[in-house]
Amino acid sequence: TQLLEQSPQFLSIQEGENLTVYCNSSSVFSSLQWYRQEPGEGPVLLVTVVTGGEVKKLKRLTFQFGDARKDSSLHITAAQPGDTGLYLCAGNPGTYKYIFGTGTRLKVLA
Amino acid sequence: NAGVTQTPKFRVLKTGQSMTLLCAQDMNHEYMYWYRQDPGMGLRLIHYSVGEGTTAKGEVPDGYNVSRLKKQNFLLGLESAAPSQTSVYFCASSLQGGTQYFGPGTRLTVL
Question: B23-59 pLDDT, tens per residue?
């Protein structure tokens, strides 16, 4: 069974702080996605990374795919209360389906 | 354009009862998925479909059945509900395995 472990599981920080969330696996993925989910809603895609070593930026969010395509990180600069939510990574092992990570619940305090 | 919709939003069942969850998408997507989400476990794939009339098992298929009679609809059935099936169920669709668009979820409680 392929697993994607996310760390930390929970994170509570003050507005303006920086943070990094990690997504790790022993398996290789052809692509990896990051989603954000708010209470009572379904996950919404933030980004897809497909190349080992790839870095993508989305405003204050920076996503990196590991060189070996087994891990990824999400870095948020100057976090805001609007960043609060559940962050999920999802890896595609090369089939029609994605394997989802265990999730990181972020709370940004004003 | 409603995207992905799910019916019902909430449901409470007694052990042994049956029910069907309906997922509908209006984006003409080929692929559709059913996931369950439990605390600390992320999303786990139950069943998926790569086209009308086709279905396949995911990671946790036991106790569930699915049907994809029409391209826009994907039904998830529980024949005899158990307390272990208490969860939030999400449907998603995608165009040939790309970006997945999720519905708002169905919160199911089995007593």
Answer: 999 999 999 999 999 987 789 999 999 999 999 999 8
Task: Compare CB distances from A102 to B40, B58, B102 and report the shortest one's residue.
Answer: B40
Express as a percent the part of chain A with pLDDT over 90.
Answer: 85
- Per the CB < 8 A criterion, the answer to whether B23 and B53 are in contact is no
Q: What is the mean pLDDT of residues B81-92?
A: 97
Interface test with B, best of A96, A99, A104, A105 (most B CBs within 10 A): A96
d(CA A7, CA A27): 17
Is A101 in Cβ contact with B102 (below 8 Å)? no
Contact flag A42-B92 (C-beta cutoff 8 Å): yes
CB-nearest to A43 from B44, B58, B102 is B102
> What is the model's pLDDT at position B98?
79
